[in-house]
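Re: that chain you flagged

S.,

Sorry for the slow reply, it's been a week of failed gels. I finally had a moment to sit down with the sequence you sent. For the record, here it is as I used it:
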Amino acid sequence: MVNARTPREAWVRAALDALTEGGPETVRVEVLAKRLGVTKGGFYGYFDGRAQLLSETLDLWEREAAQAVIDEVEQSRGGTQERLHSLFASVKARENIARAEFSIREWARRDPAVAARLRRVDRARLDYLRELHVELTGDPAEAAARAAVMIGVWLAGHYMRFDTGNFDHDAVLELVFERMTSGAP
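Prediction finished late last night. Pasting the structure tokens below so you have them in one place:
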């Protein structure tokens, strides 16, 4: 009987889950092995140590938090407003990546290498949103402002609830999104 090995990506995804739940300090080989229902020996067949696992976990997050979203939206090949709607849906569908981001943002406050990765993700998101809004409005200043507002509202929406008057959190986010994706400056 052949003993199937736990895939490398399973270790990385388990590490991302642990990172999301408690920060980088909670990413421990023994804990991940228990979570995966395997022994920790298999870990060392893939990784030189915990630092490599954390690096690959950040690689995964970085890909899924920015480039995978952009690629998915661009494959939709719609007009600008359609791509903005696709972007909103893609980000909503990646809620696990958003939850991880808050642990990563906290970690970045203490680790310059993590901060550099976070800046790359922020820059990729802002640049892409700005490009879409330039297409939409033709105004680079308006595009920069809309990109900043959209990302700022998205981030803030994970720290607080936008229950305003007769509108619940999701309705407020929809209203902001609709305002930010209209063609008029």
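What I noticed first: The chain has a mean pLDDT of 91.

Talk soon,
D.
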